[in-house]
Amino acid sequence: MIDAHVTDRAALAARSPGELALYLRSRAWQIRDRDATGAYWVLVAGGEEFEALQPTDAGLRDYGARVLDVLRVLSIVEDRSELDVLRDMTNVSMDIHTVRTFPVDSPPGMIGLDDGVQALESVRNLVLAAAYSVGAEQQKAVQPARKPAEVLRFLRDVRIGPSAEGSFVMSVHTPIPPRLTSGHADDADDGLEPSEPFQRRVTLRLYDAVVAARDAANEALVSPDGLDAFTASVRHGMSANLCEALVGIGGGSGHPFEISLSLAPSRPMLRRRLSPIRFRRDHLPVLTAAAQELRERIAEDGVTVFGNVVRLHRVGTGSGEISIAGTVEGDDRLRRFWTHLPEQDYLQATRAHEQMLGVSVRGDLLRRGTRLYLKNPVAFRTLPEGDTDEG
After folding, report:
1. Are 50 and 43 in contact (CB under 8 A)?
2. Residue 304 above 90 pLDDT?
């Protein structure tokens, strides 16, 4: 053990009384007495009784010094450095996903700039896919670009933590409400209590979906029906979005990587085994192909496209095909979309093209090779001059 001591009084004072109490309780300490400014905790370990006086008023002038006294006792009891104990105390109410990449072409702890940016954005998309899966009434193999307000609110509470030693590491910290009762979860098949909060359900859904993706990729490498393993796992949170996020973590160079989960000590679960999930280089092309095939087979329902008509085609009169250069609501990427419109809408599209006006149309988005098609188009309309998107 590296005997690292903590001397930063500001860092000590930043630990709230609640964090101290939650940490002590999670480590089986018990309160023997308390008064207006402190709680007296005891722990029997190895036949010896230990004592800790936890300050309960952060406004005390010597609050940081009192936190340090508790930290030193915990360091001795746990046989760990003060720095390690303080770090775990900070994360006592956090579920933490650790994403460890293994770039072979960079020094330890570093990654190429482009790969690093892509990996970080992909971690966000991974969390987003899991959150949508938990909040959705029905699991979807292709999730919509526009996410519900509940999912976006959740995402704003998630934090990126500091890196760690070794390979290039990212950590995702999700705040978890503490369990207020003394009992532990009597885990059901999915390891969840009916009252588990949304945040915990998301962190476990992310883990389970990533396991399902890794297992499906392994199955696809040996089975002639490779996509079946992916479609069968949609109920576990599998989606094209999740597969694309996992591929992105590997970056353009296709680095192998590992994802692990540690649960908040303030809300333990006794019978969950959470082994690290490793992805090899040969998994990534399989995940890419699975995402593409899912998008080709399964339409994204109720998509609204905004943009400009750039191509018109019909034979004679009646209905015809148009091409729109624009974006999907909730996604800023500029892409091209094809759709087949009935005669009245086609005539309206023709006028919009001639007058260089924007249009919008809603339908089911499907990929065919390199093309994006909007099936079952409805609500086609011309936008006011200068307006080519939902804003």
Report:
1. yes
2. yes
